[in-house]
Design brief:
With 250 residues, the protein is of the alpha/beta class. The chain has one domain: Rossmann fold (3-Layer(aba) Sandwich). It has a 6-stranded parallel beta sheet with strand order 1-9-8-5-2-3. Bound molecules: 6-phosphogluconic acid.
Length: 250
Amino acid sequence: MASDNQANFELITVSDSVALANSAAERIMTRIAANRGRVAICLTGGSSPRQLYQLLATDACRSRIPWDRVHWFIGDERFVPANDPLNNMGAARRIFLDRYAPAGNIHPIPTDTADPQQAASRYERELQLFYGANALDSARPLFDVVLMGVGPDGHTASLFPGYPAMEETKRWVVGVPEAHVEPFVPRVTLTLPALNSCREMLFEASGSDKRAILTRVLAGENLPANRARSSGETVWLVDAAALPENFRGR
Ligand code: 6PG
């Protein structure tokens, strides 16, 4: 895979979606345990993280999370009301956050603003306030963990191939007026500089529907999902059904 951070890239294959959620949860727990202070976790939308979120809500997992010092963010949002079934943070809230996380530790992207650009500016300010600076310092990552998924066109968060948001170098969050894939609603997305500022970026890809795009990703094609690279460690957790033929048995 093409990368300027090849040494810190890892492809981990697991048997199925249950093993994948277990492995993701364990990695998150390890990152939380490694930080004695305030922890920042950036969640993702779509269907890929749902099993993980359900797992985090189980007694076995939730009892291991120091809820008072873990903060939860979201990497991209669909510009729909907070209670709309399509809202990414809304899904995470319903599945586990609202039950266990203090309200002040949940940081949704606002969608009650005039437009996605205004929502982006507000979220950028919120992130900068949390971080305590307006410029990212590579020695001090913004997030402990950034969860990611990959779409059929190679997008990740709401960074779509060929869209200007992909080339953003200054803004931490931008509005995306039109999506490239369903659901066709405007989006708000963190940019590569913000997403990449993390100790660990964790992609989850499960099921045979992901095999075609994973073949392209693992061949090193220039796709948003390949340009998202942690300043620390980047891990792709892939289950057997999603793994391309030429990676089987390795
Ligand atoms: C979104 C997501 C998006 C998602 C991929 C994969 O808002 O849609 O954040 O980037 O992670 O599209 O989606 P699935 O997990 O549903 O396949």
